[in-house]
Every structure is written in structure tokens, then in C-alpha cells.
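Page 42, continued from yesterday. The earlier attempt failed because a stray header line got pasted into the input along with the sequence. Redoing it now with the clean sequence only.
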Amino acid sequence: MTPNLCKPWEHALSRRQWLGASVAGTGALALGGLGGLVSPLTAAELNAKDKQVLFVWIDGGMSQYESWDPKPGTQFGGPFRQIATSLPGVNISELMPRTATVMHHLSLVRNMCTQDNSHSAGVPRIQRGDPKNRGVTYPFFGSAVAKLLGPGSSGLPPYVSIKPGSGGFHYQDAGFLGPQYGALAFGDGKPPENLLRHNSLNEEDDVARNALRTTLNKRYVEGRRHENAEAHSAVYEMAGSLMKRQDLFDATKLSPKDVQRYGSHEFGRHMLLARNMLEAGVRFVKVTSYGWDTHGDNFHGHRSLMPRFDQAYAAIIEDLNERGMLDRVLVIAMSEFGRTPRINGHIGRDHWPEAWSLALAGCGMKRGTVVGKTNDLGTFVDGDAFDIGHMFHTWFAALGIDSRKVEYDNHGQPLPIAHDSCSVVKELLA
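This time it went through. C-alpha cells are written below.
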């Protein structure tokens, strides 16, 4: 620290005096999670609906053969068997015994066919819904939901990400919507560093400081583009709300039974935190699991990875259902693509966007539904195939958003919220 610099608390009195003289009567900067829609009335109606999303991102590419679409005894099927599920006539991999017991709550899509077979292209394309190239960067689904449905009444950040490694504010997710709709990432499931108020400041000082900041931000944006200032204010608001909910991160408050059910492994802990975030009212919770890019030793890799996914995923489906939350929480579990039918020279499976699967549950979904199929070898889709644009239309519809009528307003430029060459998969909707 530079010794000649003044400390924040050395100016507490002058700040209060300045506020009393110049800020009386001014309100806080209104962020408004629903601004920028072509139809504000529709936005207000959407915000009134207490719907949420759990987005389970399986980074790297889960193998459909070792999960949702097994082909045992075939040329490419691999060594694992298939098992019956709670949905008659529907089998999944033996690596998912707990998920098999909740299959009647799920909606399974087995005919995904997307374009990009690289992580660098596939990850953003999948999470943005692959809109047509309109010269702007579209938002990830979490940012889109935060924009279209608003933050909700919890006061907590509308879009949070729980992931291994480092955390921080991921403004890039928001694309043209503006950085305030980015994701607040909890690295290793921990709260942001330095979240608590410095012990040299009392609550009165903190309120005065924030009121001053709000007023100065409001003055700054007059005659300027407001996105960055709004994002700056939004981050402060997020920090303020999280300061009041430190209990969400307190592992000592977790039920030992829940920890055992979800698993003491990293993914289990993160999924349990996600459940608590949803119960607290966070609009969109993303949980990321890494390590699924099994170009080498695919079968041992999935033998290790799948039980952790199976345990925590089944546990949260059970909990959401038992708590009466599954009807309003849309649960999406997916990767950027699947894995190749052919086994490579390293006993691995490579990237395969041609025919893969994803699982849905909850809000707006028809429970116990399987849509689409692959051929007998699992190499290609048999019949109609769905691109990621179809899923975005379907997810929006499940959340009560009409993707044909609701549009974004990008500084006066109306833009569709989902790929306008795709459509809703009606078979998936309740």
C-alpha cells in the first residue's frame, strides 16, 4: 500500500456532510432488470412469474453412449450395459443407477444434431442458442433469462455460476445486453473475496458511501452510454445482497444427510449449494463440471465421472420434486456436443455434434418423455434432428416467454431472442 494515499474511512464525515447538502431527495439509480424489451408490459408480466433455471453444464462433452443413449452389444456401444428406469421401456447406462429411479420426472432429447465440433466454437454457440449472425454477440442463456425474467424478489444476483477454480464477474456472458447481465461466479463454491464490510466502517458509513456512489454514477451517465455504469452499480447491489446471505456458503449449516446424498466430491458440494441458491430465490443457477473431454481412456474416464454426476443430479431432482419446486425450476443438463461412435487409438471418443443427447426436467416440461432417437449404432439421428436453436425456443416457452413475440431492443434495433429458423419442440412441453 502506498503510505501517502488517504484511507476511505478518513473521509466518512465529509461524505455525510456532502450527501446532506446535495443528495437530499434523489433516489437510488434504478437498474430495472426488465429494461430493453420491445414490450415492457409483457416484461412486467413475465417478472411476476416466479420461475427459475438450474443449468448443469457438463464441460467437454459427455458421451451419450455412456449416459442417455446406450447401445450395448453393438459395434460402438462400449463395455457398459443398459439398465431399466422408472420410465417403462426407457433404458439408460448402468453408470446412472440413481438417475434411473427419477427418469419419470425427466424429459430426454436423443436427437440433438449441432454444427461445431470444437470447444472454442461449440461452447459459445450452444450457450447462446446459435442465432443468425447479426453483427452482435448474443447473450448466454443465463444472461438472457436474467434480462427477460428479471432478478425476482430475493434481492440476490439473478445469474450465478458455481464452478471449480476461480470466481469473479463474467460480464462476457451478457453479450450485447450489457455487462450488468453477466454471471457472478463462485469459484470452488465460495463467496467472493473481501465480501464482508471492513471493520473500520459502520453500517451508517456504508449507507452514506453507497448513496454517494449512486448519485455520482447517476450524474456520470447523463449524456453518456449507461451500460458500464449500470454494471458497476449492479455489482455493488449484488455484493450488498450477498453480504446479508453469508449463510448460503456456511458448510456447517448443511445437513450431514444431504452431504452424503449429494456426495462429498466437488460436484456434489456445488450441486447442493445450487439447491440452496434456488431455495433462496436466485433466478438462474449454473453449475459447471469439468473433465469430460475423454479423447483418451474414455471408458475409465466415464466410470469415474458418471457416478458423481449421477449421485448429485438425481439428488437435486428428488429434492426439487419433494419441495414442490420442480414445477417452477427448469433443469437443463447438457454439454456442447457428444462423443464419437468410433473409438480412437487412445481408447477414447472424440467430439461428435452429429447425434447426442441432453436431459430436461421441471418447469413447463412434460415429465417422462423421450423425444427423438438415433439409429441402431448410435452414429446418426434417425428422423428429425434438433439444433440448439430449437432448445432455446423450447426453454423460453417452458418459462412462459413467447420467443416469436418477445424481442430484444439493442439500442433501437429489434432482435429475436432465439434463432428464427428454429421453433419450439412441442412434444417436450406440458
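Notes: Residues 1-48 have pLDDT under 50 and may be disordered.
Reminder to self: strip header lines before submitting.
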